[in-house]
Amino acid sequence: MNKQKIQWAGNGGRGNGNNKRHTWSRRRSASTEQIPKLESDEEKPTAGMLSTFSRPAVEGVGMKARRLSLSLPDEFVVDSCDLDKEYKSSSLMPGKRGKCLGKGATAEVRIMARRGTFRNEELVAVKEFRGRDKGESEDDYIKKIKSEYSIAKSLHHPNVVETVRLCTNRGRWNHVMEFCAHGELFTLVERKLFAGGADGYYSPDDRLCFFKQLLRGVDYLHSHGIAHRDIKLENLLLNQEGHLKISDFGVAEVFSGEHPGLRAAGGECGKNMGEVRLCEPGICGSLPYIAPEVLEKKASYDPRPLDVWSCAIVYLTMTFGGCPWQAAKPEFEYYARFKKGWDDWLQDHPDGQIFDGHDGHPKCGKLFSLINPPAIKRLILKMLHPLPDKRITIRETLETTCVKSINCCCPENYEDPACCVDATKKKQAPKISTTKKYLHHHVPPKPENKIGKALTHRFDMGDGWT
């Protein structure tokens, strides 16, 4: 059996030969115009690991988009408290009390603990927002913070970071949220824990389990009228049990139903669901993960296909240790190759429907020829359909046979039975009248440089404010 050689991403695409990295700094990428165009290289299937940050836009992002899609009241129904009354600096890590986990242009995140706990302290991540800009009214500033908080607070799913409290401290607003001890998937991919062969820590089954958890989390959001609009490895965290958690709702959009901050919603998402409100043209998200219809900025768009596209990019980046392209624009070599494959195939298949068989899907370059099994390859191509109205929905991905067959170790929802079956032990008596869950032991190994786990945990800072 011939094995195709894959060139895995190296030092994050920096090219400076210096592996030293400040793990607490927010990751930034250049604008589309500043990203270097890589030379054609048939031996390298990806564009490498590209650091990203959430892009603001003139339209279609943050509060501006929400004003266009529905009217918000002057006051949100949001309770707040004084941070110091309920939380304290953590004493769980000696010498690192209140340690800063991440800094950005709009916020910084620190680790704290709930007051009144002594043993097995309940650690939380506290996101402190920057002060109001000079050209920004106090009302707009507070609305932006409360809008993001009320959306995040309304979400309750095993694959979504739990938001706990809105607090104030010394004139600054703070979001208190679940602390995910094992950090971002970006860091784990960068450490080559997903690399193929003997060097990789995570197996293909692990990778598929993470993918299914992501799909479940996004399906929960969409079924409750919320689009994330910035799905990427940096915004996917691992909690203490090794379960995937979607974080950072700084550019999330309420595309249907009541905004959770409205009194009519009572703090819940998915109330009075109805027609889909489109987002105004404008880039929203992080460049390697943004769908082409959003980058074109030609028309209003449904934000749900954007999330589907981003989930597929996450899978490819996680699988091959690098982004498939710098941005979904024809001037970039990798995307141009992908787009040509689709254009050629659509000429002979104008209905755009992928099917089983040799000519059942477009040939989009070396990267896509390496995806196995074939059913997953076809699914990823359906998620990356260049025409958003023909792109598979997130619910349809979960209903495919290949995704249903993925053994997932995380409960599907909070009502799911807690029973688990250890997939690593072949001989284990089945339990009657329970749903099987599989333990894949996703907890990553400690990094060789002995950096504390808190320091490997970074947050994107919600740069999607206008």
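Above is the first protein from milestone M3; the second protein from the same milestone is given next.
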Amino acid sequence: MKKMNLATQVLIAFIAGTILGIVFQKDILFLQPVGDIFLRLIQMIVVPLIFLSIIGGIANIGDVRKLRRIGSKILGFYVITTILSTIIGLVVANLMQPGKGFDTNMIVATGEPIKEAAPMTVGGTILSMIPANPLHALSEGNLIQVIIFAAFLGVVMTMLGDKVSTVKKFVDEGTQIMFTLTDLVMKTTPIGVFALAACSIGEYGTAIFSVLAMFILTHYVGAISVIVLLYLFIIKVIAKYPLTDFFRKIISIWLVAFSTTSSSGTLPVSLKVTEDEFHVKNELASFSLPLGATINMNGIAVYYAVTIIFVAQIYGIDLTLGQQAMFIFITTLISIGTPGIPASGIVLAVMLLNTMGLPATIMGMIVGIFRPIDMIHTALNVTGDVVSTLAVARLENMYDTPAETADMEILAPHVES
């Protein structure tokens, strides 16, 4: 196992865990503490890793104008891909019609009780991103507030330049410490993925054959459609990255995303693979990926789109193009404000249904089968982060190795003079 790369180890662990979960079903749940320990280790490193890497990434760019240019491109990719993911989700749901013929008598309140979320507004969302107490945000793990505070510090350090060289050295060394600690935690990834996959399949595996099978299938088709229609275009046309290499390198990120169902929990692996395998410069990856893990929720956008159409079809409610257009705007806003943690979309989906004037009763039933849905959408979330980062890396020439750039130029000979 030591001679295998991380992706191979994780793949073997995921397959083995899946098989044991199918064979032993709920009897395999004695492994749950092992998976919980792995998740706790991830949680332990995420906040300081994001805090230091964001500061260091921005400070190392070294030029406020360059930072403005790179930041605007990253945010532009995140917002545009979220909007397009929502549209693709709506189209797929309208074509597949997962709620057509669904018997409303099957709707029962199962699983955990669902609490209604407070209505979300543009002003409220922006305000909630700004920390009133940065230390409180750090201690509570409020990632979007941590990122905002770290971004301000990084920008100020960039403006001050050599005047804060001592602080910059401290941040750089602290980042190196966190990356080393991350490497140590990542060595336990195959064990954690094995336990999480076994327990997830053992507990939820049979749910995919329930009355919600078409609902689940629509989510997977929607996610795959985003990859095929949107991500492949960005990878090939904008990032100009070899597709076979991309999918070979992204597999380890997918497997951890499937297991943790957390964009933030997958972040350490995303950072490591993006820098070590895709060879994106640290100052870009350490800025783009933590930001993406918090605000770039393409998978959640697809989830909201499919869920809205599903519920509307169940109750025979026809949503007009105007209503669906309004839904795209609301979904983009909500997706940006959705934390990258497991099952965060449940409560916000209730709020979204209420906002659209649709019944939320079905959500009690969806809770029981949310895990397999969350798996594919988390994978889509983190893939979107990497794809957008590669696109910006290409546009800004922010790859570490000349060989990587040369490989991509093979796909784009027309740009050579």
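Note on the second protein: The two ends are 46 Å apart (CA to CA).
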